[in-house]
Structures are given as C-alpha cells and as structure tokens.
Design goal:
This protein has one helix and no strands. It has 74 residues and is an all-alpha fold. The protein has a domain at 21-67. The longest helix has 43 residues, at 25-67. It is rod-shaped, with a radius of gyration of 25 Å.
C-alpha cells in the first residue's frame, strides 16, 4: 500500500480528517484513469457507430440508384 492509497479511490486519511479527496494524488490519478477509460471507450464506440452508419448510407444509396429512385438526402 503506497502512501497515497494506490488504486483505492478514497484517501487513506478519510477517518482522521475532513474528506478532501481532490488533494490526494492517488485519488487524482484514479479519477483521471477512470475518466480516460470512460471517455475513450465512448469515443471508440461512437467511431464504430459512425463507420457502420457510413456503410449503411453507401448501401442505401447504391440500392436507390439500382432501383432508379432518388435519395431523400437534399
């Protein structure tokens, strides 16, 4: 156990002092890691979704062209 609490998200002095977790470097590192993982998992998920929508748009345009109809875009 390191002095800053390692990966435990709350400071080691929680029972002896008022809870000021923002000043604890272990808490800061844990929160930055948590936010980065959350943020980048969201970014990757939205990128996959965007690429799937692009594939579907191309498929729909090719289908509309083969059927001789116009696309509803524009």
């Amino acid at each position: 156990m390191y002095w800053w609490g390692y990966y435990y998200p709350y400071p080691y002095y929680a029972y002896y002092a008022p809870p000021v977790p923002v000043l604890d470097p272990g808490y800061l590192m844990w929160m930055m890691y948590y936010w980065m993982m959350y943020h980048y998992s969201y970014v990757v998920t939205m990128e996959i979704y965007r690429q799937l929508m692009e594939v579907w748009r191309r498929y729909a345009e090719a289908l509309a062209k083969s059927l001789g109809t116009q696309s509803t875009q524009g």
